[in-house]
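Troubleshooting log. The previous structure file for this entry was overwritten by mistake, so regenerating from the original sequence record. Sequence copied from the archived sheet and checked twice against the printout by T.R.
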Amino acid sequence: MENKSIIDLFMAKKGEWFPPERNSEIRDALSKLDKERLLVVTSIDYKEPTILLIISIFVGGWGVDRFLLGDITMGVLKLITGGGCGIWWLVDLFLITGKTKQYNYQKLTDILSIK
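Regenerated output below.
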């Protein structure tokens, strides 16, 4: 399988897990990789925004969603305050998918060194 096919498959499967305005930038960065490194980068485990939304709905009041995204401080604050008496929990229901996409993008950029 050639690199273009691998990139197309990756973007078709996981492209919506990244901020949409960054997809062309991601494609460009992936196209510059050799096949071996491309296979490694595309096989990394990224967080699925829909799953994180479901987690946020059911246990977001305890900060589990933030812990999964590596935001330990906010996770602890949500845990201690019961989701900010429900306010942070409610706000995160609207923000968590965007935060997940940004988390995935940051994880990818750390590996690819996209500036």
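Residues 26 and 108 are 8 Å apart (CA to CA). Archived copy saved in two places this time.
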